Amino acid sequence: MQIYKDPDRSIEERIDDLLKRMTLDEKIAQVGSYWSYEVLDKGKFSIEKANKLLKNGIGQITRPGGATGFSTKQTAKFANEIQNYLISKTRLGIPAFMHEECLSGYMTRGATIFPQMIGLASTWEPELAKKMAQRIKDQMKTLGIHQGLSPVLDVTRDPRWGRVEETFGEDPYLIAKMGVSYVKGIQTDDIKNGIVATLKHFVGYGVSEGGMNWAPAHIPERELREVFLFPFEAAIKEGKAKSLMNAYHEIDGIPCGASENLLRKILREEWGFNGIVVSDYFAINSLMEYHKVASNKEEAAIKALKAGIDVELPSFNCYNEPLKSAIENKNIPLKFLDDAVRNILRLKFEMGLFENPFVKEENIPDNLDTPEDRQLAYEIAKKSIVLLKNEGIVPLKKYKNIKKVAIIGPNADSARNLTGDYTYLTHLETLKQGAFGTSAMEGITFSESELEIKTVYKSLKEKLELNDIQVDYAKGCEINDGNEEMLENAIKLAKQSDVLIVVLEDKSGLTLDCTTGESRDSSKLTLPEAQMDLLKALKKTGKPIIAVLITGRPYSLEWLSNNVSVIFEAWLPGEEGGNAIADIIIGNEVPSGKLPISFPYHVGQIPVYYNHKPSGGRSNWWGDYVDSPSKALYPFGYGLSYTTFEYSNLEIKVEETNIIVSCEVRNTGQFEGDEVVQLYINDEVANTTRPVKELKGFQRISLKPSEKKKVSFNLPIETLAFYNEKMQYIVEKGKFVVMLGSSSEEIRLNGSFYLEKDKFINNQNREFFSEVFVENSN
Q1: Residue tagged active-site, from 154, 158, 280, 373
Q2: Domain-by-domain residue ranges, the chain?
Q3: pLDDT for position 210
Q4: Is 280 an active-site residue?
């Protein structure tokens, strides 16, 4: 038996043996990918196309389910056909990685559509991120998929950017905590049983010039390390993530896809990363076409490979003939290619891909979305909804005099628009419109009617009519366009109703008609004009308005905040979003979501975020703008409930390696509910300026009326470290302020502690998070 085929030999032995056997063409094949449809002919696997494209093998296949329109059974059969060809028809028989998108669920036909990531972040419950990722892993594994292009760990401070919805928000600690949980859920403790997680986008993608996609980011080194790299470092060192994707933009004149400092020095040399780096789609070619740091594809390939990108996605462009020419002409040493192939083969061996390349087609269900998956999607959606304002209209079930409710809004009866930009239907629209330079989706049909999703209107109607409340619907307008007849019908219905539930919405996706999503950036941060005109007309009826926001980003909500009775932010809540929204409004469930990102008064405040420096977040000396407050309208961590909570008994204990901070929280209201206890720290005086507060721990707790629980945070000393003037990682002696509260602004308890001596931190073996313990204290 050849050594590389012997599972009893060490992985490094197998890599060495296989690498020695490979020709240049076979090595080149491993560092690229092909779109799944490139080996299809009229919807069938094509031997002729495979003979042309796959004869030397292939590193990856792009979206065998997500880019084909295939059913679950067809996807599994297709994946097996590709693997069978590679194993039986190529000289070395190296199986391929199959990769898919899995941001808010496996992006394929018949899979569960969970809430978008910004909604998952609003739960402030990392265990839900892990559970969601575990279910995504199971669904992908069932169809023979090996790698998922998630999670997004971008720290975003500019809500104008269209991809805010894909992120966990503005805070590096919350992002890291949710991201590590996602990675652990999808990869598992044994990668052979898991799916490779891909951290993206490395790094600083969420703070671009003007909030525009792919635009430069201006980040100094200290801030880069303390804020933007932190979630990635935690996900690699603690989460053991096996893949990473470069970002499209540049930092200080160097595109991230050509940055040896990022992809070699920091990632591999400093952090010890031994997985694979994949290019974001078309990012290598963009070094030539977009960034102008290469004059041709060969130069682009050389820069990317030298920087440390192992795999070109989504299809060969620069890493095939251009890279081969560069190596043959000795414009780049062969060692760079060998190192990339070594990384790729190592991960294939670690996953057991050579021993188990196939899935059992007879075990494939028609639908991946089980009742248990839907229940999890509901739980996440329920816990993600943030109550921003309540003048007492909700919960509706408190009121016996409500007989008729009007549901109004362009998306109130839309299933598709409850979902985020990386879901199956939205990406079929993208492919069909040729956004990726292809018309391969012609003939593939899939519509909103195939989504088993109850809309907001249908969910509310079903649940309210059980309580003898009449429910009617009027569209009012289109998402981006007014319609006089629709408006008149909505006003007429409003006048006949006791309460108006107005659903104000984005359309998420990558196409030109979308208002949020990748490449759908906003300069105004106001809801679409047609929807605001509708809302203002409804306001004139004098009826109480419950505004439900189904959006992908924080909008400027000052007018809304001053003119409606209730505001909910439901984000893009997925397939169970309609049910969750209805239950929260009615009062079958109690809202408990907290904002993972600040909401501005006006776009002119951007960036507005809670963990700014002492000189930031204000205009010296009066503080506010001439025409606006300087603080956020709704701050990070904010979220109301139908019940109330009391904080008491702050205790702080300083130990040699830990700080223990504890408090008690009591439910002082009439409803059972959840509170998210948030711990913030401020290093009062330091060698370099420190944020006014930084999240260092949080815990969601459930409390019955009058119930009290004690929450204790065990804070490792190294979580207080920062980079000093000499870029040494240090915890300095001095006073630290402790703040416990229900948001970054609503601090309920204050205290402090003092450290007696400096401590230099070994950045290789540090703790990233506090441990939290909860106990009943009634």
Answers
A1: 280
A2: 382-596, 645-776
A3: 96
A4: yes
